[in-house]
Task: structure prediction
Amino acid sequence: MTSSPSPSRPPDSIRVEIAFDGGQIMGAIVTVAGADELERVLAAASDGTHVLDASDGRYTIPLRRIVYVKRFARESRVGFGI
Result:
């Protein structure tokens, strides 16, 4: 049995949550490549900002303020389904 992608989420996308110092958390649906690039710039301990293209717009994120990034599993779903 195959499952079809959610109409609101392209098949090559993933959900991420980014937590900032001060307690703010933002969630976004981004491409897998976009999530990979965010992880690369964080691993490089870069200062400055990073532009993240998401399904609902473009975010410019101050890298120094990021506390953690949560990358959700691709197949996670909310609700009932087969």
Q: What stands out?
A: The chain is about 15% helix and 40% strand. Residues 1-7 have pLDDT under 50 and may be disordered. The helical segments are 32-43.
